[in-house]
Amino acid sequence: MADKKEHKIVSADTGEETSVEAVEAANKEAKEHKIKEAAPVGNATAYRAGAIGLWVLAIVFEVLAILTLLGKLNVRFLPTLWGLIIFIVLDLACVIIGSQLWKKANHIKPASEKNKVLFWLWNNMGVIVACVAFFPLIILILTNKEIDKKTKVIAVIVAIIALLIGGAASFDYNPVSQEQLIAAEEALGDENVYWTQFGGVYHTHEDCYHLNRTDTLITGTVEQAVAKNKTRLCKNCANLDGITGVVTDDAAVVDSQE
What we know:
The chain has 258 residues and is α/β, with parallel strands linked by helices. It folds into two domains: 127 residues, no CATH class; 83 residues, no CATH class. It has a five-stranded mixed beta sheet. Strands 1-2 form a two-stranded antiparallel sheet. Helix 2 runs antiparallel to helix 3 and helix 3 packs parallel to helix 6. The C terminus is likely disordered.
């Protein structure tokens, strides 16, 4: 067998020769972070009330759009098509903002996942509201024989796009359950965790190598992290601490230390 060849290491940044030891030392060097305290988690009931109020308003805008379509409501200086588009856009805005408030409430006070169907429905009420806020209007536009073809086509396209945008924005891609939050709080106790502005992961170690590219970290309790939509523990941090039974950033529950 041929002898192992000794490599010359050249830095891509400087073009100068370096050593394996220097590269490893640079990789291990933790970035100095600016640490910010997390804001209070807020009141879930208030967020839910706001969401429901906006969703009711969305249905009101849908009714106004239907009345415009049927000729029962005439918006001064605006043709029927523009009246429809305005009400559809207002409907969409209320659906989306309401859904964001609902999802925030669900992360502050999560639902139990003992019943998977109810858990999904509760976390995705915004999707259901989006369907209610646009499906009847779309059907009425399609079946209305009194409006011209151009108005019908444009109004249907706008309403379908609004439905798709509203549904996508209302879906909770990162739900958390009551059981997951309790497990994380029991595993970490009063220990503060760290997270970045983006992403859905929190960390127990400020010097975790996943954070080396981040200048500013936010620190707070697990409850505060989850309220900010950081619902999964970094797997590297979980392994370092020997934490088990908590959902990690690979969407799995850590059963044992690797």
